[in-house]
Design brief:
With 400 residues, this protein is an alpha/beta fold. Helices cover 38% and strands 14% of the residues. It is built from 13 helices and twelve strands. A seven-stranded mixed β-sheet has the order 1-7-6-5-4-2-3, with helices on both faces. Helix 1 packs antiparallel against helix 3 and helix 3 runs parallel beside helix 9. The N and C termini lie far apart (62 Å).
Length: 400
Amino acid sequence: MAGTDKSRRDDWSLATRLVQEGILRSQFGETSEAVFLNSGYVYDSPEQAEARFKGEAEGYVYSRYANPTVSMFERRMCALEGADAARGTASGMAAVAASLLCFLKAGDHVVSGRALFGSCLYIVEDLLPRYGISSTLVDGRDLSAWEAAVRPNTKAFFFETPTNPTLELVDIEAVAKIAKGCGALTVVDNVFATPLGQRPIELGADIVVYSATKHIDGQGRCLGGVVLGPQDYIDETLHTFLKHTGPSLSPFNAWVLLKGLETLPLRVARQCESATRIADFLADRPEISRVYYPGRTDHPQYDLAKKQMAFGGPMLAFEVGNKKEDAFAFLNGLQLFTISNNLGDAKSLTTHPATTTHQRLTSEARAELGIFDNTVRISVGLEDLNDLVADLDHALSAKP
């Protein structure tokens, strides 16, 4: 491919990097990033092909391994996250699975926060044991529980913070310190905080994973994921795993994600501002018994949120009434908020976790995580705040 690699400038602000970082231009000099929608590449000679396959010459070999458009997305994500290297994946769950399976082996042990998205819990509790990898679930808020769960064969700590859907927090710095003490890698799912709201690598985490489907795309258009971490882990351990197992990020989806990154700061700032106002509105309503939002002083871990998060985030949850029927009546009364298990969209979305994202758990297990039949989760979008509040007011005021 002809063109230049627009390398990082130390004096660029983050917003500038999310527009300019890593651009590779072809001989046509296009302004927008090009979509290299191809599977294979040609070589000038068999000698060049041999050198590329041996890793002795730079260049692309096959889009399952790497692709110019995907490379641009990976480089821009590194600028955003402050990571040495990154690899895109076909989805967020592909990123989570690959981030663990690429280095764990039979006989290893994982310590994981118990408050996980349903599919992440499946990987830890059901999938890993099939390959002889044991796991222990702990209350992520309890540092002594992390310490007590460590075994001689513990190789990974895994958790999300804030958690889905009740926005519990894990002290990244403290847990990463425990992991380093036993030689384990810390893997953090940072989706709810967004890359702008929390920087796990700066707090001591080794690896960060995202469902880029969420706020990074930000408009509900495509699937994608990304794993970020140290150069040797990404280039050797993870790359080899992805190369041979094939959860590749589509070049077209990578292009869509690049476009999403250009507006990420603007979108997330607006969503967080609206989420803060909505949380305050809901907290004053008699129909709402509890609001979960890290940006509010009544959050039980507010001090930790102030320490490791730049803002409260675009997600919140709350309890309406006292039973499922109350939650369903509220959801059915909404006109602007859309019912969907997705999140991070430009459109405001809401869901009932007990019957969707966490339905595979028993009612007892959900109760331990603070997920009840009257729990509702909201992903705040880009609509006018007054319209969003009016819609919530209408649904809460409507008689069943």
